[in-house]
């Protein structure tokens, strides 16, 4: 399935997150992309916008619309180190790292391309120059089927936490810019607000910080490892996964596998969806599966493959919803 060939760094907009209103977007569009420096752009934002929330929204929107992912650096087998210096004290290290960050942000802004760290540094500098507290968060992301069952380990990604009205929020502007395709090694621009002020429990589905205080929810690395891989339709459909509760499923080869979903909003009066299909990794196309809709639950019975292990993806309206790793035990 071609869908497994793509590393999706963009999972289209969560309906639960903060939305940037059209007034802010129209104002930012009027500023344009031909801006000389981060400082100049921040000064313009300070002139155009009064509230911290508007300035943060403007920073996110401008970066996601004008900066592309640096595919040459990302796909390079010999990535250049971002810094190489010696230090005697933590304070000396902090000062030197600050200079490195300034250089990375300036180069990324000038070239209009960056990897995740560059996106996060630019966002922090824009926010800070607008008088808004913002920090860079280092951590790990779950973006591919093979990440199911893996604990967050070494840092491989960066995002931000920003303070608005005395409350800290989570932001990933790199994912807001678009997606990377590993097969073609190209960047696909696709502005979205998936990870803009997203509630921590949903941000957690794809992000795990090195410093757990930046989780902002009562979750842990074992739970992150156990998660299935969620896609945009999971949120767009306004449903929550009910069964199974983990991403790795052990089943007997002759059995069917039960998958169930419920309304995310318990008070919702909307009908539960029923246009589901499924596919294992080697399948050429997804197969339609009947949905058993009863009151507040929709249940699917998936015929199991005889392979020892496989990836199973559930689709809703032909859009990938969630992927599981299935391990089959023979009797």
Automatic annotation (TrEMBL):
Coiled coil: none
One term under GO cellular component: cytoplasm
Transmembrane segments annotated in the record for this chain: none
Transglutaminase-like domain: residues covered: 43-172
InterPro entries: CAP/Cytokinesis_protein, Papain-like_cys_pep_sf, Transglutaminase-like
Pfam family, one: Transglut_core
Protein name: Transglutaminase-like superfamily protein
Organism per entry: Saccharicrinis carchari
Lineage of source species: Bacteria, Pseudomonadati, Bacteroidota, Bacteroidia, Marinilabiliales
């Amino acid at each position: 399935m071609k869908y497994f060939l793509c590393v999706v760094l963009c999972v289209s907009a969560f309906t639960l997150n903060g939305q940037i209103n059209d007034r802010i977007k129209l104002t930012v569009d009027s500023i344009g992309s031909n801006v000389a420096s981060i400082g100049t752009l921040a000064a313009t934002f300070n002139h155009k916008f009064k509230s911290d929330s508007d300035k943060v929204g403007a920073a996110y929107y401008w970066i996601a619309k004008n900066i592309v992912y640096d595919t040459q650096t990302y796909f390079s087998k010999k990535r250049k180190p971002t810094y190489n210096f010696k230090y005697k004290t933590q304070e000396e290290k902090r000062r030197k790292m600050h200079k490195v960050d300034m250089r990375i942000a300036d180069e990324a802004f000038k070239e209009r391309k960056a990897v995740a760290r560059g996106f996060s540094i630019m966002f922090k500098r824009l926010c800070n120059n607008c008088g808004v507290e913002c920090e860079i968060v280092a951590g790990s992301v779950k973006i591919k089927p093979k990440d199911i069952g893996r604990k967050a380990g070494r840092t491989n990604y960066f995002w931000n936490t920003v303070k608005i009205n005395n409350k800290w929020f989570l932001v990933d502007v790199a994912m807001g810019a678009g997606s990377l395709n590993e097969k073609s090694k190209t960047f696909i621009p696709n502005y979205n607000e998936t990870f803009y002020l997203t509630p921590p429990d949903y941000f957690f589905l794809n992000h795990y910080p090195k410093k757990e205080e930046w989780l902002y929810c009562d979750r842990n690395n074992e739970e992150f490892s156990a998660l299935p891989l969620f896609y945009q339709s999971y949120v767009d459909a306004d449903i929550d996964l009910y069964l199974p509760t983990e991403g790795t499923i052990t089943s007997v080869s002759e059995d069917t596998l039960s998958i169930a979903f419920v309304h995310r909003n318990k008070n919702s009066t909307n009908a539960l969806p029923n246009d589901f299909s499924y596919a294992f990794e080697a399948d050429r196309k997804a197969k339609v599966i009947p949905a058993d809709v009863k009151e507040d639950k929709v249940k699917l019975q998936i015929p199991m493959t005889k392979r020892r292990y496989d990836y199973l993806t559930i689709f809703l309206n032909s859009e990938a919803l969630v992927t599981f790793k299935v391990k089959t035990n023979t009797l």
